[in-house]
Amino acid sequence: MEMEWKRADEAQADHASRVPPGQRLTAGFPVLHHGEVPYYRDMGKWDLRLFGLVEDETVISYGDFMKLPMREFGNDIHCVTTWSKLDNRWDGVPVAVIMEKVKLKPEAKFVMLHAEEGWTTNLPLEDFLRETSFLAVRHNGELLTPDHGYPVRMVVPHLYFWKSAKWLRGIEFLAADKPGFWERNGYHMYGDPWKSERYDFD
Ligand SMILES: Nc1nc2c(c(=O)[nH]1)N[C@H]1C(S)=C(S)[C@@H](COP(=O)(O)O)O[C@H]1N2
Ligand SMILES: [Mo]
């Protein structure tokens, strides 16, 4: 792609158009979660389970997961607590690659992401399947740190960042929507940052 030189004011306008209502930019990478950070000693105990409305449940070991085709993704992320972080670079497994491992039943319309310690978050199947959704292993060139979701976190950049489950361990396919952890505690079922869908009354 050809490099395009932008004047400072144009660059600023470009940034502004990338920041949803009520959000502020941060240069750092805040850490936010409920519960304890898991530390892994034995990756032989890690796996990723694909289950629910699939023909055959599948379990992917850490070794097999790391051999899946990965690619680079660039995106902006928006946390419901009002910080946004632009221009993230990630490496991860596209959702399409994961979906080759299972055959969905036609009733499947929603996804529940399961993280360590029973933490969950829900989203519609079509949002999970977007080409911009992926399972990340690196952020800005470095392996994910334990705080940010090592070894594998979901990234769904078009929804508020709480839908991007850290320490992902399971992907469950469902016929009907069901609230996950924060959704049971007052967060929005969908969470579109461009519509400020922060809480269930928004
Ligand atoms: N497993 C798990 N994933 C989680 C959370 C959590 O509590 N547990 N919090 C979510 C929330 S509210 C946010 S804003 C982002 C924060 O990700 P970060 O700490 O990498 O910035 O992770 C999301 N993923
Ligand atoms: Mo959050």
TrEMBL record:
PANTHER family: OXIDOREDUCTASE MOLYBDOPTERIN-BINDING DOMAIN-CONTAINING PROTEIN, PROTEIN-METHIONINE-SULFOXIDE REDUCTASE. It comes from the Bacteria. This is Oxidoreductase YuiH. Residues 34-182 form the Oxidoreductase molybdopterin-binding domain.
